[in-house]
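The data layer described in this paper is built around a simple, fixed record for each protein. Because each token names a local backbone shape, the row as a whole describes the fold. We quote a single record here, exactly as it is kept in our systems:

***
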Amino acid sequence: MAYKVTADFSPDGDLEKDAWQRASRVSLVDTLDARRSHPGAATEVAACWSPAFLYVAFWCRYTDLNVYWGEDPQQERWELWNRDVVEVFLTPFPQTLHRYWEFEVAPNDQWIDLAVEKRDDIRLDAAWNSGFEHRCTVDADTQRWTCEMRIPSAALGLPQIERGTEWRINFYRCDGPGEDSQRRFLAWSPTLQLNFHVPERFGWVRMEIAE
């Protein structure tokens, strides 16, 4: 469930604000085996909305950060998924599940957004630009990093987000250094394979107003 915010706000990485205190959080699990525990990468996510934006927040524990150090976070970063990153895959149009959008942000605020088409193969359109906003914070003392995203409804082809609408969505996290066999891959709705591009495994989010 995603609840409507009382007023729009710009992401600043502060997840103590009222919108997130009232939000319904869910936990991510190992995408291959939900019974496998990763306490060093424990991750929670929540979503909320306004007519103009979908907001998403991640709370992430970490052991060591694995990012592209020394690069300009203002520039879109291809293959960002090869480092630590949180991801949102979504479509407001469940009837065309093979077309969806992907949003990724790293702890150092590097980012990429993609228009995706998944049929027999996967087409990733990095030229698409959603104009989404994001901000991360890293707390080395507690070994936690957070991420806040704001995704414009107009970029998804919607005049506005409305109460009661239901989208297909999944939330992911890649964590840790090394080859894929050494890293941790988490999902809200596990894909049951080492691949996040499994739209039939997307969950549902319903836009509602908190009572």
